[in-house]
Amino acid sequence: MEFRYLGNSGLKVSEISYGNWVTHGSQVEADAAQACVRAALDAGITTFDTADVYANTKAETILGDALQGERRESLEIFTKVYFPTGPKGHNDTGLSRKHILESINGSLRRLQTDYVDLYQAHRYDYETPLEETMQAFADVVRQGKALYIGVSEWTTDQLRAAHELAVELKVPLVSNQPQYSMLYRVIEAEVVPTSRELGISQVVFSPIAQGVLTGKYKPGAELPAGSRATDPSGGADFIKRLLTDDVLTRVQALAPIADGEGLSMAQLAVAWTLQNDNVATAITGGSRPEQVTDNAAAAGKKLSAESLAAIDEALGDAVVSDAGLTADTSPKTRLV
After folding, report:
1. Which family does it belong to (predicted)?
2. Which run of H or E residues covers position 13?
């Protein structure tokens, strides 16, 4: 495993991190989830990402259980706040002071830790003044409940405004968590250059495009049983837009490129995101330990210029790169 600094901070994180979105508490049973966390630890992964909304708080509980007995100082634990949780009442969502201060306490209790290394705003909240949100995050840091703060899927204007307040409040805003993969590159034109300027790293999710970049989904073929695409608890909704014959045919053309680099297709996809020096860590998941181990082996892999060019040629116009799509990820009104 190799390590990178998170933003303009002294905190190092593992290049490959383990996240439990969709899987823990829904797609994967607790014993299988614990086996995946153990595989991550065995592979040298020290950074773990979750959120209170995943499986409506169950994912945090499962991760907390799985990490018990590990030296806390040797781990970097990330979680997030914004989406509706619990009974989903009128204050059980968003980035109000009330919801943030109550949510961090719930997350710490479920994760069985006194603090998280990174506390992230899961989306931008258009219904709460940004000053209120940032002051609440600053208080969480000063109370010792989080060491650093981050955001997820924020636009460049939102990042600049948050950074200005973070400097004023003297709290470390160090990261943004966007979707990023060979097939989805919307952050490259605007978010990445702005983040470099502000000292913010990307903590990227879906580097394998929900499993599509592994090549296991074949054009015209039946969906593999037990795969993300057949998950009725939500996983299928996130992947269906990628399951077109055009995209899947182009993905199959990546196989010889991976072979030439001595990598599996999943490793090629994860390694590709890490060629971007603004990416601090790529969040990978897995429903089986062997998937976790395979993904982790992408750490430290440097792809040749020829391979990078061949990837672009193979995927062609299947790549999504519209910078304006980031603005569409945060709901304009709260989801309750």
Report:
1. Belongs to the shaker potassium channel beta subunit family.
2. strand 12-14
Q: What is the pTM of this model?
A: 0.92
DSSP codes of every residue in 83-128: S--TT--TTSSSS-HHHHHHHHHHHHHHHT-S-EEEEEESS--TTS
Q: What is the DSSP string of 209-250?
A: GGGGGGT-S-TTSPPPTTSGGG-TTTHHHHHGGG--HHHHHH
Question: Mind listing the pLDDT tens digit for each residue in 177-235?
Answer: 999 999 999 999 999 999 999 999 999 999 999 899 999 888 876 776 655 555 655 55
| 66: Cβ contacts below 8 Å, ≥ 6 apart | 33, 34, 37, 38
pLDDT over 70 at 52, yes or no: yes
Cα 68 to its chain centre, rounded Å, is: 22
The mean pLDDT value for 21-35 works out to 69
Residue 96 contacts residue 128 (beta carbons within 8 Å): yes
Among 288, 301, 297, CA closest to 38: 288
DSSP, collapsed to helix, strand or coil, labels residue 159 as helix
The single-letter DSSP state of residue 4 is E
Dump the DSSP string for 259-279.
HHHT--HHHHHHHHHHTSTTE
Nearest to 282 by CA among 292, 55, 9: 292
- Indicate the Cα dihedral angle 230, 215, 270, 66, nearest 10°: 40
Identify any residues that bridge with 13 across adjacent strands, giving them in sequence order: 4
Is the sign of the CA dihedral 220, 180, 228, 93 positive or negative?
Answer: negative
The percentage of the chain sitting over the pLDDT mark of 70, rounded to a whole number, equals: 93
Which domains are seen in the chain, by residue range? Answer: 3-7+11-328 (3.20.20.100)
Residues 304, 301: Cα–Cα separation, whole Å: 10
Catalytic residue numbers? Answer: 54
3-class DSSP state of 312: helix
What is the rounded end-to-end Cα distance, in angstroms, of the chain?
Answer: 41
Cα→Cα distances 274→16, 35, 181, Å: 9, 26, 10
Give the 3-state secondary structure of residue 149.
Answer: strand
